[in-house]
């Protein structure tokens, strides 16, 4: 039985001189509060504060990083407890856990391994490595602890030293859980973000009903485009009143456009009443991104754009299990032409902050850093999704910093629904930044005093400023 | 006269702590048998077991890495002994060797230098560096040794500790050399692989005659598409009976499609009887990749796809010397859309293993690792061709591992027709993997015990499993 | 007040063993003369030898790296003294300097910081770090020194140990400043380069008037394409007579084509007399690149191609300030298909040297190294523009060397209009090359004796050879 250890110098460069610098830099930021300005945790957890169900429900079934890897090497999703679309899992959680534990070696070299080991070690106090032999021990320890009061969502939130945690909701969401958290008197700061994809993307499932619901929830006449825009204004104001400081937009590509008023009105009529063509859907999405930038300039909400993913690439899997099952695959993107219409209008506006995320790392040095190093409105989000890893982060800093500097970036965000992994992910980011900065210091490109300042900014200062937190 | 030395720590990271780990990991895999599951050596060498002709014929004329570099800096191919298309070289092999030796500095920093130095040192026992001054000494030593029995192909095969060596043959090949090797009683395991490009790519030279020959060799009526598919089944069975476990497909791009039966029948008639249009050729190739995946699911042969090369980019060179003369240039590829039709049908099938190779390393993190980290049927081949180098391998592991892990990869293959370089290439790969793993250990991302296991798997376990060897 | 120091080991790898090698390699090349074969300094400086105006005019207003970063974080260009298009700046230079100084931390991690610190330290003898507190001290010191004779352009040229400095001029330029430098008897070697974009790109502003002026300055009848080609021959001869050894071509993409004579004649008539369509402009540019390769094969001038930038991406900025204001953004390029028509004709011609530059680093390993490692006419230019940085250079060498070697590259060029930064930029390049070579030595891939030879070639030998200097 191998010991589970987390070395204090993990993720630091091996060279002893550089490592010593990294360690000093990290030590100054390691215990800063966590600012999590973008993610997908469920506000109901913090509203209800109920215990999490069991180890499989907590750590495997909601984590597409975990089950996609198991599936890719031959484990059927059914046997991992992934429920069929619209149904419920019938798998025994302990059996699921054993399947996972016996294949834990598959995660060697991946960030999931780093995050999970952190959770095992620090949250659950486990001290032997997970494998087939320790599977039941793990299950029993975690399952028992989940029932204790200090493992309830609010207690973990506090223990994790989270200063702000942002969730993501659709305009149709009532924000009842956020309201309930506020009413409860609990001090945890949980914010929402305005994610209007279901009413801006005509290809999202149930789009036309969503538009009608959007009219109902805002009391606007959404049969016209101007009424629809007014509904956005109204709903954004409601989200802001509930604490939101940001919007988020997940698009298949970063295409933007700006259509004349009559053309938009006609397009709006087509996509809200007729059969939606792919080209109309694309035009509407593209026009709405530009509109959303305008609304952000108006009301001051920070705008986030996550673009460039082929969603639901595996149709038979989608038919059986639905969306978000690890079948979303990145594609190459071109920001330079795609964002031009939006930037032509809003790129120089000091009131707008637009944060860009990508999974196509070729754009870091070629497009994103040059764009963010020019336009006042643009900032670079941290490495996203598959790139949210030690080497992914190192490549991002190395590719972007020389052109865009540090101050066109916005710190880290975890973008996760795996609540327990949040501190682990921020810890990886802090270590990765310390490692990168240590190299710059060791190569005498910046002073260590400067690196200390930057490390603090990357961990705390820039994210609070960019997201107005 | 500079000494030729091969440092025992070559290709390991310079940092002493990391290097020590790399050395320990390497020591455990250095002498494992070579599994070479894909390459282009000539089975006639092992059937006939005749001595190799002379140093130039052995090391320069068949090695496009070598002569392309010399050509790029101004040496005409004629003077290097490259024979004209359909003709014979008239160059004096010693003169060729001298030209090469005087320009050996051009290979500094390239893998050819590493492979050649290994061959010079270990195979021929040379101890001074190759240059103009040592050219004749080299020529004489190598030429003399080639005449000795221990430098015949079978003896080298054994000396190299090769457990399996796979060649690549067309369906029209009689496999007579493979049969002859079997009949000879010699114990060397030489397998073939089924490479049907000349009967699946309507743009390959002599395609329509090849189809007719395909009908003749299989006894099938290839005037219909179903007869043609039956011919594949028959020929694949013959290859399997001769030991083949894999197929290989070299396509200009990874485009796949799936056409309705009548459309395929009509398309087949057009490409086999009329003038072939580029679009028809593309459709047929794309459809046939999907068909081949189906046949692999049926008969269990591992499928390899090498896509994304602009072949014969230099038309005047092609006219004078023919194909495979260093004028093949990689192009950007998109696997996400291209493979979807094939994956829609076979991506989740546990009977299929499809191994992907690319020369566009931007796809490692963006497309290939996410695809292989999801679809049960997909595996990532090792860095191919120009990327088959220490830094190319390091970039592959760094870009792919964090998303796909180690266990969606299939170990190394040398893909070479330069027989003598095979151990050198595998040695570079083992060192590169040891170096990468040592970094993960030094950064405390995995334990050294885990790294040992992975190193063994990357060298031996994964390749045997993926290729069923 | 922090001290300004330039560590002697800056930019060398932190690992002590590798660093020691890098230091030894660097020491042998550190004081070699500077060969600057491509750039944008103003020959009038050296003709007139007048003092530079003030710190802001010298170091901020002409440096788009500097003001783009300031603008990207919210500083209006007006306040930085950038003059409106066709107008003059009214900003107080000291106020400009203070704005810059207070935001100098924005440049941490960027090459601008390295270049500027070098200038502050070595040229102006400053010993405290630039920030808000030291702004006035800096301004006063620099402003005072600029008035001294040893800070005049020619004195700096000599002090910088520049052996050759090449500027870039249009065919319409009279080269009067170059003539004046020659007549002056001053020994500094300032050459021009032939940059015909304003008469080869129908989309360049004032193209048709430029064509008429081209006829006038060459005495050729440019109403026909053959007369126009003759004008190029005449003007190239004039440039050569004035010392030019190279041409330079800045194109939106590397597209080339070769049109039949009648088609070119008709196309020429359209673009020189009518309304220019984008497609006609593209065809003419593409044809002219191939023609220019032919002229270079004829007259021996080295040809440089800088392609793949979306110029003037920010239209409102362009309207207010004009071109070259930091709003040029790189785009993805495809050299493999784009250059084929040119290479089909000239790629194997030993008389042509075509040097390629890119901002799309994905092409380094995928396209450029394979092309340059094959075609005798091709060479790889050093990392360009945003990639002209320590990590950019490291990625270039790592991506290109294993396929193209060192000897298909052409040494460093600074490509700058920031005269004072030239030695700093060359110093960064020398250190980056020493660092890369040191790694190869430390990994036992080449001998240190070989690395010394290569370092000399990369700094001095290859650039003199490629540019015939």
What does this structure look like?
Chains A, B, C: GO terms for molecular function: glucuronate isomerase activity. Three copies of one chain form a homotrimer. With 469 residues, chain A is of the alpha/beta class. Chain A has two domains: 16-50 and 153-466, Metal-dependent hydrolases (TIM Barrel, Alpha-Beta Barrel), CATH 3.20.20.140; 51-151, Orthogonal Bundle (uronate isomerase, domain 2, chain A), CATH 1.10.2020. Helices cover 51% and strands 7% of the residues of chain A. Chain A has helices at 16-29, 43-48, 55-59, 64-72, 93-102, 111-123, 135-146, 153-159, 176-184, 197-200, 207-218, 225-241, 261-273, 278-299, 315-321, 335-338, 340-346, 362-372, 390-404, 422-442, 448-466, and strands at 34-36, 162-166, 190-191, 246-251, 302-307, 309-310, 329-330, 354-357, 378-380. In chain A, the strands form three sheets. Chain A has a four-stranded parallel beta sheet with strand order 4-5-8-9, with helices on one face. In chain A, strands 1-2-3 form a three-stranded parallel beta sheet. In chain A, strands 6-7 form a two-stranded antiparallel sheet. In chain A, helix 6 packs across helix 20 (422-442) and helix 20 packs antiparallel against helix 21 (448-466). The radius of gyration of chain A is 23 Å and the shape is globular. The termini of chain A are far apart. Chains in contact: A-B, A-C, B-C. Chains B and C meet through helix 4, helix 6, helix 15, strand 7 and helix 19 of B and helix 17, helix 18, helix 19, helix 20 and helix 21 of C.
């Amino acid at each position: 039985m191998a010991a589970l250890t987390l070395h204090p110098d993990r993720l630091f460069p091996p060279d002893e001189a550089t490592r010593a610098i990294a360690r000093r830099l990290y030590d100054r930021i390691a215990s800063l509060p966590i600012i999590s300005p973008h993610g997908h945790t469920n506000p109901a957890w913090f509203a209800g504060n109920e215990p999490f169900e069991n180890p499989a429900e907590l750590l495997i079934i909601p984590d597409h990083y975990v089950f996609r890897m198991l599936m890719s090497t031959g484990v059927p999703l059914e046997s991992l407890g992934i429920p069929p679309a619209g149904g419920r899992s019938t798998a025994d959680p302990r059996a699921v856990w054993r399947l996972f534990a016996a294949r834990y070696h598959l995660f060697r070299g991946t960030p999931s391994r780093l995050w999970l080991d952190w959770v095992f070690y620090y949250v659950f106090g486990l001290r032997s490595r997970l494998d087939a032999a320790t599977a039941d021990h793990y299950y029993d320890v975690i399952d028992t602890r989940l029932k204790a009061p200090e493992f309830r969502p609010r207690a973990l939130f506090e223990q994790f030293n989270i200063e702000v945690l942002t969730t993501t909701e659709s305009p149709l969401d009532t924000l009842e859980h956020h309201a309930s958290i506020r009413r409860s008197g609990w001090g945890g700061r949980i914010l929402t973000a305005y994610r209007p994809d279901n009413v801006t993307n005509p290809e999202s499932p149930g789009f036309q009903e969503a538009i009608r619901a959007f009219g109902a929830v805002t009391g606007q006449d959404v049969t016209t485009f101007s009424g629809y825009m007014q509904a956005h204004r109204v709903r954004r104001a409601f989200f802001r009143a509930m604490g939101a400081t940001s919007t988020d937009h997940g698009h298949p590509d970063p295409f933007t456009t700006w259509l004349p008023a009559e053309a938009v009105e006609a397009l709006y009529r087509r996509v809200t009443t007729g059969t939606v063509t792919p080209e109309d859907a694309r035009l509407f999405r593209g026009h709405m991104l530009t509109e959303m930038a305008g609304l952000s300039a108006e009301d001051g909400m920070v705008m986030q754009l996550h673009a460039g993913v082929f969603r639901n690439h595996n149709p038979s899997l989608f038919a059986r299990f639905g969306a978000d099952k690890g079948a979303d695959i990145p594609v190459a993107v071109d920001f330079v032409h795609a964002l031009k219409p939006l930037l032509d209008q809003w790129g120089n506006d000091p009131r707008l902050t637009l944060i860009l995320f990508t999974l196509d790392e070729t754009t870091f040095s070629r497009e994103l850093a040059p764009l963010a190093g020019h336009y006042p409105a643009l900032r670079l989000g941290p490495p996203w999704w598959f790139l949210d890893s030690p080497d992914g982060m190192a490549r991002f800093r190395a590719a972007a910093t020389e052109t865009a500097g540090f101050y066109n970036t916005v710190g880290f965000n975890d973008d996760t629904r795996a609540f327990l992994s949040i501190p682990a992910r921020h810890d990886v980011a802090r270590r990765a930044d310390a490692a990168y900065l240590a190299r710059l210091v060791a190569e005498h490109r910046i002073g260590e005093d400067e690196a200390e300042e930057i490390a603090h900014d990357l961990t705390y200062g820039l994210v609070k400023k960019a997201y107005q937190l």
